[in-house]
Write a structure and sequence with these properties.
globular, metal ion binding (chains A, B), Prenyl_diphosphate_synthase (chains A, B), two-stranded antiparallel sheet, homodimer, mainly alpha, Farnesyl Diphosphate Synthase
Chain lengths: 294, 294
């Protein structure tokens, strides 16, 4: 219960922060800002901001600095959804319970709104209003670029695109997901640690936690895609099935996928032993991932 | 002659730098890096890198720092070309004398290669290999995000998209171009000044120079679009005419556009008086802009 309250609180704060950070809709280009707002202010779970803020709290990091860092990360996550949903990519109509940006506006606006959200993320992190010292800000920017660029998220999306309808084995899918979704989830935990000035050992434990959690989260996502209710989940489901794409569930089966999630969740919890009970809220977040699939 | 030699020298150095900065083409996602290289290593004039480096040289700035800053800026310029050429945007087949990225690869790869180039720009600027001190790196990042995001280049492209085939007056077109192309040209000059630690007065003179030059450059581009030889220019021409779009030439006429360019060029040169003959290479660059249209 405490976990879900915190998740909702953080989601609300991040939405307010994004509302202030995205430029107002003005001039002939106003639809660009409207599209950015449509995507970024929609009802998302805000899991990545949650991990930034709760990881940073472990080290008593400044809350304002964490919130802005979380908002920047959510801009990157949102841009990736807008571009992934494009007709030339996954061609999805529904996202966060509402029409995708290219449906609500048009394709050109969706490309540009994504571009602008990505750019805004770096603007937010570079700004001195972020209250981090310059070295911390630069580290956050460099690691975000690593996690989201060609050797991270965008690279993973490229693999996903190329391998549609072609046979994929477990190793290929695992690497693709580590890049496509894992890198940004790992960044969310790392960012909290960077802002909080965590020790190398603490960072190492958190990196292990994030890697196991990220993979569990993705397998849970594939389970949800196979078994969930579209009206509850708020995005197009059965998309892998429709595209003839292999994923964790088509390879492991539903029971095999559940077992794998449980194993990864146990490992993720073990990494948190390092914090000796001070990371309870992160522990609860693991249960939340499990609960999504029940 | 000196000017063209310098422009070629800088173009070659920037291409070598980009070749080293773009990740190698490896793994199943190799086409992503190939597409980034296709776009970024193609034969561009590299005007923006030229202005970064030659403006920085006015203040004896570190050459390595300038070159990496220039390479980052060229990544942003290149990404904007890749996305602007997409079928849902300007739908162009030819760029820098070769097929556009979505023609040589496909649309999804073009979207992702653009995303990855934009992300790489911020990675390059944040990295300590850039040899700038942290405050300078942060300032470069923040101003690049301003110049290229929703309130800069992307905002300008949005106006350009929305107003296709709708009536446009000189004020609207001037504002659109100030955002779409002017902001990044201004940034190129500002970046050199930031890296070089220029005084506020020097920055002010350079900002005036860049604003007049950028507008002259865009009017010259419209002239070239109306009167140039596609085989020489290396990109699709008569595109505004084909789309029924108003531009500086359709509004001012060919002679009126030439007059306006001459006026702006004279103003641009005046701003350089501040440097009392030390900005000769920048002066010559103004002639180059004029020469393009003769």
């Amino acid at each position: 219960m405490e976990f879900e309250t915190r998740l909702t609180e953080i989601a609300d704060k991040v939405t307010v922060a994004l509302d202030q950070l995205i430029p107002p809709a003005q001039g002939p280009e106003a639809d660009l800002m409207r599209a950015m707002r449509h995507a970024a202010l929609a009802n998302g779970k805000r899991m990545r901001p949650f991990y930034v803020i709760e990881t940073g709290a472990l080290f008593d990091a400044d809350h304002k600095a964490l919130l802005r860092t979380a908002a920047a990360l959510e801009c990157v996550h949102t841009y990736s959804l807008v571009h992934d949903d494009l007709p030339c990519m996954d061609d999805d109509d529904l996202r966060r319970g509402q029409p995708t940006v290219h449906k609500a506006f048009d394709e050109a606006t969706a490309v540009l709104a994504g571009d602008a959200l990505l750019t805004l993320a770096f603007k937010i992190l570079a700004s001195d209003e972020t209250h981090n010292d310059p070295a911390v800000r630069l580290r956050l920017i460099e690691r975000l670029a690593d996690a989201s660029g060609a050797t991270g998220m965008v690279g993973g999306q490229m693999i996903d695109m190329l391998q549609e309808a072609s046979p994929r084995d477990l190793n290929t899918i695992t690497r693709m997901q580590r890049l496509k979704t894992g890198a940004l989830i790992s960044y969310s935990v790392e960012a909290g640690a960077i802002v909080g000035g965590a020790s190398a050992n603490a960072k190492h434990a958190l990196a292990g936690f994030a890697q196991d959690l990220g993979l569990a989260y993705q397998i849970a996502d594939d389970l949800l895609d196979a078994t969930g209710d579209q009206n509850v989940v708020g995005k197009t489901l059965r998309s892998d099935e429709a595209a003839g794409k292999a994923n964790f569930v088509t390879i492991l089966g539903i029971e095999g996928a559940r077992e794998r999630i449980n194993l990864l969740a146990a490992q993720a919890r073990q990494h948190l032993d390092f914090f000796r009970g001070r990371a309870n809220i992160l522990l609860h977040s693991v249960d939340y991932v499990l609960d999504r699939t029940r």
